[in-house]
Design a protein that fits this description.
Length: about 240
């Protein structure tokens, strides 16, 4: 049930989502869902490279990952720009419309990520495709774990949630060590950048919006992916 809730919340896969079960009881599955998506993305990326050029393969892989999540992270960023605020437990508000500025933001995020992925050496691209969903979901997980205000009053003393938050944190730390698939002199700055984006970004946004919002989660997830990917691309050029 907890895994089904995590998949129903994080992906467009048709898993039944039990709204009466607190989502935080599924928090320990969030980074594991990211690992599963990363594994799928690698297989997809390697498969289409036999058909399409490398640049198009990079774009299609990133696009498929966005589609698999329902574009939720990009929507959250656009909603933040539009001034919308939605707190965990309520879902995104209906009536969202993607305006011209929203199209520009979505296009810009995809452009930066696609360009950075294309600039990576071929041997790094597969690692990056695998790690991007992991970074995304670890950022989401840590946003929920490190924001006590996101826990509804009715679940503050839920011991199961407390245990699973600890378990989720441990899983995130283990999976983030996969950054060492890259050389250590690249992995350490990438890990540090991820920590700065998530920890400082979360602190700033929570203070600004009086608690965790779904838009904050979306922003930190996309920034962690994009920031680390750009850092990898720059490092590859510097040390090539």
């Amino acid at each position: 049930m907890s895994l089904g809730n995590a998949l129903g919340h994080l992906t467009i896969l048709p898993f039944p989502y039990k709204k009466q079960v607190p989502l935080l009881r599924s928090i320990h599955y969030f980074p594991l869902v990211g690992m599963g998506m990363g594994s799928f993305a690698v297989l997809f990326f390697l498969g289409i490279q036999h058909v399409f050029p490398n640049a198009l393969s990079c774009f299609l892989t990133l696009a498929v990952l966005e589609v698999l999540t329902g574009g939720v992270q990009l929507r959250g960023i656009v909603e933040m720009i539009q001034g919308r605020r939605t707190y965990p437990g309520h879902g995104f508000d209906p009536g969202f419309k993607l305006d011209l500025r929203g199209f520009g933001i979505v296009g810009m995020m995809l452009f930066f990520k696609t360009t950075a992925l294309i600039l990576l050496p071929r041997e790094w691209q597969t690692h990056a495709v695998f790690l991007l969903p992991i970074l995304d979901h670890c950022a989401q997980t840590l946003s929920f774990v490190l924001s006590p205000s996101c826990v509804p009053d009715t679940h503050v003393n839920d011991k199961l949630i407390a245990r699973r938050r600890v378990r989720a944190s441990f899983i995130c730390v283990i999976l983030l060590m996969l950054l060492f698939l890259f050389p250590w002199r690249v992995a350490i700055p990438a890990l540090a950048l991820f920590a700065v984006i998530v920890l400082l970004g979360l602190r700033r946004c929570n203070a600004l919006f009086n608690g965790l919002t779904l838009q904050t989660v979306s922003l930190l997830s996309e920034l962690s992916e994009t920031g680390v990917l750009i850092l990898l691309a720059v490092a590859a050029k510097v040390w090539s």
